[in-house]
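Help needed: design a sequence for this.
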């Protein structure tokens, strides 16, 4: 196995890539799954008061955008470190499904740390893709610390949640979106640890576009919004949120640097606004959206008054929502 310094080199790498790098990543991803669609939904347009394009990352093999990053990262790992036999990471669900899905394609064992009380259906999906689950801690950050401890103890390759290869992989959805709809005024995207928004910013810049990128976070866990306003990393306390994909207390410094340079703003969303957007997706498009997946639409609706006459896109980053919660909290 590689020593600790080698292990961490890739996690510290600046997630900057060229257009040929991105196109190569897209070819790798598209060998496993087709591009996801982007549709302009008329009922959402009526609701938002502007043209609304939805990038349907809920239509991937794992039901979320993260699978793209897992495929690109695991391809690099298999080539750069063929001695690795097992990987470990922490997640609230979508990253873990991506890791398990991609690891299985290379014959690697995948161990995933999740917090207590994690989504039952996301846990089941990770296990169905071959992951071995370890339940530890009250939230994602605590689970991440447990994953690091197990990596040191058992010799697993510690797979990060933010890394140049993960960003390059998830940026392939941005390439698809901007290629299909190049004249967007604004794109709303959720911020978990930052791979999605970082990929959008880098891809927009590579293509020479002027589209605004707006990040959205949960009001309950506003670490990235506070950090964006302060210009440096600000850590917040643990708090519950229905948008578990955005449940981050400590921003990644590399991601924050990209966001500070390339995002127009980061807005906060209440739990009620996110629930409303989940229901809007169901009624207007008959698509299930998890909390983080619905959050960009909630952000657009919050800024409805300023969006008149504009062409907007929202990233429906995932649809992995527990059915019982959806029925009780959204449909009731």
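Sure. Designed sequence:
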């Amino acid at each position: 196995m590689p020593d600790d310094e080698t292990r961490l080199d890739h996690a510290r790498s600046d997630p900057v890539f060229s257009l040929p790098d991105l196109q190569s990543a897209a070819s790798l991803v598209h060998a496993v799954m087709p591009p996801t669609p982007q549709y302009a939904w008329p009922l959402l347009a009526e609701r938002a008061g502007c043209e609304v394009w939805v990038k349907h990352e809920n239509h991937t093999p794992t039901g979320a955008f993260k699978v793209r990053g897992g495929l690109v990262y695991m391809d690099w790992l298999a080539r750069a470190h063929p001695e690795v036999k097992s990987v470990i990471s922490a997640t609230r669900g979508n990253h873990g499904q991506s890791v398990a899905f991609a690891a299985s394609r290379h014959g690697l064992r995948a161990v995933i740390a999740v917090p207590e009380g994690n989504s039952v259906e996301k846990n089941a999906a990770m296990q169905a893709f071959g992951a071995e689950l370890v339940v530890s801690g009250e939230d994602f950050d605590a689970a991440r610390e447990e994953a690091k401890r197990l990596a040191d103890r058992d010799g697993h390759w510690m797979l990060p949640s933010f890394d140049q290869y993960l960003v390059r992989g998830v940026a392939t959805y941005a390439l698809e979106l901007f290629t299909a709809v190049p004249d967007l005024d604004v794109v709303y995207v959720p911020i978990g640890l930052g791979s999605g928004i970082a990929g959008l910013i880098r891809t927009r810049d590579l293509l020479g576009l002027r589209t605004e990128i707006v990040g959205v976070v949960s009001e309950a866990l506003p670490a990235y919004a506070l950090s964006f306003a302060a210009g440096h990393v600000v850590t917040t306390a643990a708090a519950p949120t229905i948008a578990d994909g955005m449940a981050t207390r400590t921003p990644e410094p590399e991601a924050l640097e990209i966001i500070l340079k390339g995002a127009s703003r980061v807005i906060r969303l209440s739990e009620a606004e996110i629930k409303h957007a989940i229901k809007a997706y169901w009624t207007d498009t008959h698509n299930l959206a998890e909390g983080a997946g619905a959050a960009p639409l909630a952000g657009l609706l919050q800024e409805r008054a300023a969006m008149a006459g504009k062409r907007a896109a929202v990233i429906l980053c995932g649809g992995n929502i527990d059915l019982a919660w959806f029925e009780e909290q959204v449909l009731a």
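The CA atoms of residues 28 and 72 lie 7 Å apart.
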